[in-house]
Amino acid sequence: MLAKNIFILTGAGVSAESGLSTFRDKGGIWSQYRLEEVASIQGYERNPSFVLDFYNMRRNTHGGIEPNAAHVALAQLEEAWSARGGSVTLCTQNVDNLHERGGSKRVLHMHGEIAKARCHDCGALAPYDGDLSVNLGCAACGRTGGMRPHVVWFGETPLLMDEIYEALSAADLFVSIGTSGNVYPAAGFVAAARAAGMPTMEINLEASENAHLFDMGRYGKASEQVPAWVTEMVALAD
Ligand code: OAD
Asked: Are 9 and 104 within one domain?
């Protein structure tokens, strides 16, 4: 097997062809909203309803979308690798559930999941598909006004970092898919992978600003590039 343990980082580009906007492309989410207003704890404290509405709007757009060929191919890679005694760790910055719906079993959502709500007061976490509002009470602690999307905001620590770094250090191939590499700590994974001596590859619509940090690059739509790469990997695996 070429690489026994593969660590894959995904970003908004992998879901773009399913119909979800990316953040920094032309017309992307951060060209329409001020990041510090809708994705920071200070913004939430200043205007919680505005922030909740932003995520309600985004959650609602997630309703009618489907995984694309890239999500499905990554699930096939995971299955092929686990059948051969290897592993695929899928670490995503995306808050959608398209990897799971595409069939992936082990998905680490470092920036949270939009289809879950968390109580800002007691931390209770539960699946929640409806609109959040400041009038909503927490089923666990009973307090009203603290129910927020289970999404990491700027200034907050991303989730599952111990598990993520453990999987990254055990990997022997690092692949970054559909991310601009602007947001840390995810943007630093490629340097950590290089320092650990593993080969690195990016798959993106076009070369990212960090392209020089990768040993290899495959450029074009995720729905084409990812299945092509997975087909090659599986063919070479036996
Ligand atoms: P960005 O919007 O910064 O980058 C998306 C990347 O996907 C760009 O490099 C595009 O070129 C690429 N792309 C677009 N369409 C593609 C396609 N069809 N196939 C392949 N690649 C494509 O999104 P992220 O890097 O995911 O964090 O952003 C990282 C974080 O910044 C997000 O998780 C979010 C945001 O602020 C939080 O909200 C905490």
From this structure: yes
